Amino acid sequence: MTNPDQPAPKGKADETRSRILNAALDLFRRKGFEQSTMREIASEAHVALGNAYYYFDSKEALVMAFYQRAGDEMAPRVEEVLQEVKGLEKRLSAILAVKFEYFEPNRTFLGALLRHAADPEHPLSPFGEETRRIRERDIEFFARAFEGTRGDMPKDLAPHLPKLLWLYQMGLILFWIYDRSPNQRRTTVLREKSLDLLTSTLKLLSIPLLRPMRKRIVELVLAAEGDEAHA
Amino acid sequence: MTNPDQPAPKGKADETRSRILNAALDLFRRKGFEQSTMREIASEAHVALGNAYYYFDSKEALVMAFYQRAGDEMAPRVEEVLQEVKGLEKRLSAILAVKFEYFEPNRTFLGALLRHAADPEHPLSPFGEETRRIRERDIEFFARAFEGTRGDMPKDLAPHLPKLLWLYQMGLILFWIYDRSPNQRRTTVLREKSLDLLTSTLKLLSIPLLRPMRKRIVELVLAAEGDEAHA
DNA sequence: GTCTATATCGGGATAGAC
DNA sequence: GTCTATCCCGATATAGAC
Fold it and tell me: Can you give the three-state secondary structure of A141-170, one letter per residue?
């Protein structure tokens, strides 16, 4: 019987749904994505196999749901650091810190998400259509990082920087997944050094003399985007 | 299992092996990687399913074998253009042209190879240990592209450029796999513009004033490589 | 709409006989 | 080296309970 007394902002369905997702993530973390079976996940969540599929179309939809949830839960934290931290490099660094901290316990199965980066057909591709909303919110955060940056950001380049930073972030995460050094220390160093180099490069690119160079970068980005109008 | 180094005295085994591989590639090209089943491949090659697995540990090992073969077959073509073409940008462009031309008929299933870029555990990862030999030969080609370049290539940066160019190439290929424009025209444009920008940047970086910048790039690369000594 | 149970299928991968 | 038989698991289907 349903219980109408419960305040329950979440209904029974949501409860079940998140119980399945939690069981899945728990297993993914402990045994990895491939090693965890849907039968196990269902059993761990105390639901029948069919019920797990009722809520999630596929095993990978669970990873997708995690990605979604991650976005939702990271958003307020990113907001927070954007309020507090000043200065472009520090702001970027803070955003990245939030993400890496959040993803840290899930590092071992994050590959399951990125694995489809090379498959444009696949719904889980981080560059694909289905993940667009999540990606756009992410890119918007990088746009916010530039707020408060005095007018020394080159105007011509500025509109494309958030997208490029998102790409840079994806590269860092890919590196991180591979990073076998203790505590992924190499990624930490790489984050610092690359961010430093990045901001220096932006500063260098800002000098008027390099306007032709900037123009070519913009042309490159436009050529890559083509007429598809991703944003 | 099989020995990739040997010029292979073609016995019965090699004959069967390549018959299976050919059947697989044929199906991959016609129906894509996912849509082709091992049963189909075996049947097409007139061997039993188990026999296909005797020669290839997994379906993906077939893609790996293709990657291997691609390297073997492209090598002499790359040699050829390196003999003929002069000038850094033209040489790089020529190398890329050989690759894209070779991969063109296989574009639709090439994603199956790159799909494991995000999975360090996976033997097929293009960054992993198992593909190292193939990767190194590839990187060596990019090193050769710099031959004949007068001493205007920055000495400090030079040792790391081949690796970086290989990475750049991987990025281009990933973009290409995603490219839905007619005849993948956008990738063609991107190749031209990015290569142009790349050589310009190298030229810019060569000026003595930018030595500190170069130093930081080198530090970045070293930090990324860590003590693992990839090369 | 939510959930169980069970049967079935398709396909990757393996074992073991020959 | 080659085959047949089998296993495992993701996914679907179905019938029914609440």
Answer: HHHHHCCCCCCCCCCCCHHHHHHHHHHHHH
